[in-house]
Amino acid sequence: KMINFLKDPLVVATAGSSGDKLKQENSMNFHVRKNIGKKVTLSLSNSLTKFQTNQLTYSKNETFVSDTTVSESKESSSLNTVISNNISQTTNWAIDALNKVSVVSAFSYLSNNGEFSSSSIVDFLKPPATYTVSKGVTANGSGLIQNRLTNSIMFQHRFYKPGRMLTITISNMIQRKRN
Predict the structure, then answer these.
(1) β-pairing verdict for 40-65 and 10-36
(2) For site-directed labelling of 94, which of 31, 102, 123, 143 has its Cα 20 to 30 A away?
């Protein structure tokens, strides 16, 4: 017998839904500075961070029509992970009271990966049998990796007249991005 949804009485009930979400962040930072004599200063910095989000959801809906129950179950999960690492090194050289040279090198790394999956099942329950009418699964993923290297050299000259300064900077940046 075919079910006529327009004529038969329709009752909808939500049997339940739930969801969990977990966020986690870990980080480490350090900075070291060393004076070499009275004119040279070296410094090194690093920042490492990992951020992760994990989410799971589940829902089930039931629709009652006469002697048949339509049951729909859905489940989805996602996981996203971001990792970044930044390292920099600076050397300052005070040539004399009026001149200074700075050399800066920096490296950064970024990784961003995501995964998503979902499933859905629709069943007709007509005692004593259950008929699966629809079943689907979807899975997706994404990823990005990026590296960057930057180098610069800066020369500063302070003139005898107060408030006057000459700064010359030369820099170079190389970046690589991969999806």
Answers:
(1) antiparallel
(2) 31
